[in-house]
Q: What sequence folds into this?
């Protein structure tokens, strides 16, 4: 009697647990489907999603009855469906504006984190399901990354960098009183090759997915120190070597060509901005396979702000007008030469949620609509070593899927108004 009871109870529990564990199936009926950017769009297909993954892409509009009970059907038969977009250069913890300095002084780090969540959701709802944050307060960004990955909060998938820079360089504090500089100077500000090696290891110790270095000066540094090379070659090499030893890539902020060339020779995976990419740098891009992350939107934004307002200091404004005016031409030259391009905006300079404006600027600079989409999907996934799980709508990959009214291959501006967003099988906008 007891054994029969236990057997029956066990069977009941098995049924309950198996029922609870059953995959949630979602069918997406796509009128036009760009399953693999770079390839021809498909018509009238069904994307089958189970839990957070794509399990099948089949021709025709599959019936829910073919998949049993508890099946959700999403009707996108009148839409253009494509993989979730990826932005390889964002700063989720801030936004350039007239209150930036005041907020830095008055807002607690905890409140800034709450604001960052708002910026992250704006980004996700704009169709950018994965981002690479390359300049925020590191522990806060690592925490947000991990909380999103654990399913505790909503937001885009975050690949989070830790920064390494030299004393007085672009990654060091500027524009505040000396006492605050002393207080706010980060642990990863370094001098000399071995100190920079230490700083790189420190980034990895505390959770960085990659290392962001600043081989040149920057526009938003409040010093008249230019935008040419600042980190020395031995410093750059040591950072890259330390990163490689511990399985990490290095991204380098770089404007002028001397700093671009030095960073590429050191072995970085990507050049951020690349404002003056020219004849010396292009062969190195092609030889190494490194990516250019152009951030044209940042250039346009700061140039306009410098002319139309007094938000920027004179040191910043001079650099903003000069660099912002030159970026598109260098990008066009690099793209024409066959340099690998990964999509990036520098959002935080531009408002969060406007990430798709970069696509419009890339097309205006001579890039085809399809190549723009490849840069924001296939190439971005490759840059972050996630090609096996992101970048296309194929079986086995995360169900990161967006939709717009009409084909962005005909008008890239369609990306400015994304109507449907799914990330890892969960719908965030419809």
A:
């Amino acid at each position: 009697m007891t054994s029969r009871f236990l057997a029956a109870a066990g069977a009941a529990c098995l049924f309950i647990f198996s029922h609870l564990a059953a995959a949630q199936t979602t069918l997406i009926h796509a009128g036009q489907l760009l399953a693999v950017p770079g390839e021809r769009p498909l018509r009238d297909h069904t994307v089958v999603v189970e839990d957070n993954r794509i399990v099948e892409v089949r021709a025709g509009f599959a019936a829910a009855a073919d998949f049993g009970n508890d099946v959700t059907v999403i009707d996108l038969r009148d839409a253009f469906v494509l993989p979730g977009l990826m932005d390889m250069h964002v700063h989720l913890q801030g936004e350039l504006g007239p209150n930036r300095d005041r907020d830095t002084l008055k807002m607690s780090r905890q409140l800034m984190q709450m604001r960052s969540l708002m910026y992250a959701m704006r980004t996700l709802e704009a169709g950018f399901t994965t981002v690479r944050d390359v300049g925020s307060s590191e522990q806060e960004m690592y925490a947000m990354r991990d909380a999103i990955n654990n399913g505790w909060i909503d937001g885009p998938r975050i690949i989070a960098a830790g920064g390494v820079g030299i004393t007085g360089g672009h990654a060091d504090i500027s524009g505040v009183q000396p006492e605050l500089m002393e207080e706010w100077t980060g642990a990863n500000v370094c001098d000399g090759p071995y100190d920079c090696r230490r700083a790189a290891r420190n980034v990895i110790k505390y959770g960085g997915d990659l290392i962001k270095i600043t081989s040149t000066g920057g526009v938003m540094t409040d010093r008249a120190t230019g935008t040419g090379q600042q980190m020395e070659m031995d410093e750059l090499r040591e950072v890259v070597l330390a990163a490689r030893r511990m399985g990490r890539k290095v991204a380098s902020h770089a404007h002028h060509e001397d700093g671009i060339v030095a960073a590429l020779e050191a072995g970085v995976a990507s050049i951020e901005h690349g404002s003056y990419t020219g004849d010396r740098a292009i062969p190195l891009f092609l030889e190494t396979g490194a990516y250019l992350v152009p951030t044209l939107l940042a250039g346009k934004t700061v140039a306009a702000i410098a002319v139309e307002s007094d938000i920027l200091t004179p040191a910043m404004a001079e650099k903003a007008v000069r660099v912002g005016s030159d970026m598109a031409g260098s990008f066009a030259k690099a793209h024409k030469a066959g340099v690998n391009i990964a999509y990036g905006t520098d959002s935080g300079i531009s408002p969060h949620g406007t990430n798709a404006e970069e696509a419009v600027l890339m097309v205006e600079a001579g890039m085809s609509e399809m190549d723009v989409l490849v840069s924001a999907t296939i190439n971005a996934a490759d840059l972050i070593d996630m090609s096996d799980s992101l970048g296309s709508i194929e079986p086995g990959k995360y169900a990161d899927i967006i939709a717009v009214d009409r084909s962005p291959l005909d008008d890239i501006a369609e990306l400015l108004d994304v109507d449907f967003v799914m990330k890892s099988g969960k719908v965030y906008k419809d």
